[in-house]
Amino acid sequence: MRSLIIAHPDHDTAGKLHSLLHSRGLPVLGIATSGAQVLQQVAQCDEGCVIISPFRLHDLSANEIRRLLDPTCDMLVLVNARQISQVYGEGIYTLVQPFSGQDVLDAASGLLDHRPPQILLQPTEALSYSQPQVSSPGLDKTTVNRSTDEQQIIERAKSFLMQRKHMTEPEAHRFLQKRSMESGIRIVELAKRLLQ
To answer: Is domain 3-112 given the CATH code 3.40.50.2300 in the classification?
Structure first.
């Protein structure tokens, strides 16, 4: 069975996560405060592991850690709405704040069993797509049904992605659509989180 590794630079937060997960019988291998410690503990996992981590530790980001891991490992990255667009990669999942202790338990349990729960988002490997999606606003029913305010929020989120991730408008639109479908969150709500 896979094990959990809790990675967090703050000892108190790491301890609370450990207590929460361990009290529910989940197999916690250990706590790490740096990326280097995570990699040392991963070497002890025979059947793979799930690392629970914030977006950045002192020495490495979640993306950098994931690139160094074996494919049998997954990462659960605890992010705020601004960080979600910066996390990417196969086998890396995000849980967006605000979330509850139960959300963390559900996410960890699901990943241990190789079945990510609905509350998680899985970012794509590259934040650009080889086949741009061409949208026709006049024919898009969801655009017609949105209020002007909601449409402006979505357009601002697309602009944010275009500036920060150098996406084209169709790529940014597809990114929001895909994340919305994967998470079960309305696209306008996802856009609001991205802009917070």
So the answer is: yes
